[in-house]
Amino acid sequence: MRIVSFRYGNVPQLGLASADGRQVRPFPIENEHRPVGLRCLIEWLESGGELPPVGEPLAIEDVELLAPFRSFRRNLWCVGRNYRAHARELAGSVFQNQKAQDDGWPMVFTKVPEAVVGPHAQVHLPTDVSDQIDYEAELAVVIGRGGRSIARADAMNHVFGYTIVNDVTARDVQMRHGQWDLGKNFDGFCPMGPWVVTADELDGRDTRVRCWVNGELRQDAPTSDMIFDIPALIETVSRGITLYPGDVIATGTPAGVGMGMSPQRWLRSGDVVRVEVDGIGAIENRFI
Questions:
Q1: How many Å from the N-terminal Cα to the C-terminal Cα in the chain?
Q2: Full-model pTM
Q3: Lesser CB count within 10 Å: N end or C end of the chain?
Q4: Which one, of 281, 139, 193, 249, lies nearest residue 5 by Cα?
Q5: 16, pLDDT greater than 90
Q6: Other CB atoms closer than 10 Å to residue 144's CB: what's the count?
Q7: 84-123: per-residue pLDDT in tens?
């Protein structure tokens, strides 16, 4: 199923999107026992609760799609340089020390919840701080069953579903500070959506990530090209750290980012970035 957050009649709601993405069926907001927000719904389902009933369908063009989560328990987990070709295209440019990754450890950082915006929201370029804004198309894993020190062999049993993120990055800020967090966490630097597709309908280990900038295909790779696959990422992030229902892990971006081009190509006002993942759909954001 596809669980979607949306606004209708100026009221934020949660519901199910149809398989063709043309309709949404809201969970009745008058039901006081209905979990509010996707994180609450995941916790409810994982505790043994049943899916709430849905109302009459609404046309997708009559609602405003929001980021799937209206609130997060904490920061999003993110992985850097997790596609082989992408790691090669940035070799010698961002943090040349590859020792951790070469020794078998993923590069992990976080994005703050305040960076998250909807699948069609406008993203403001912080031109007073950076003039090297880049895009990064990514598949994101949504945790269902929580746990600590989750074994690789059991990791997929902890996956609730998948969504799409654009891990927008200010490269000059990233380089200036010698770490990743500041360049990754400007307001609006994590477009997300258009919904969460549950794990019974999609295997994130076998799908494809694509990205277009102003209609030009820039990124295109299967998730099987990841250096560290989804079970490895869940095992790594949960090592000594408790994961909770609703936690999000962005799994890295394929080759084709602006920084890896010659000459480098940064996002400018008016640019439109479309990120698509097979089996989920697409998000599309204009940068202004």
A1: 33
A2: 0.94
A3: C
A4: 193
A5: yes
A6: 20
A7: 877 777 766 655 545 555 567 899 999 999 999 999 999 9
Residue corresponding to tokens 């007073």: 128
Indicate the length of the chain as a whole number. Answer: 288
Tokens of 275: 């990120």
- The residue written with tokens 């694509």 in the block is 210
The residue whose two tokens read 């280990």 is: 205
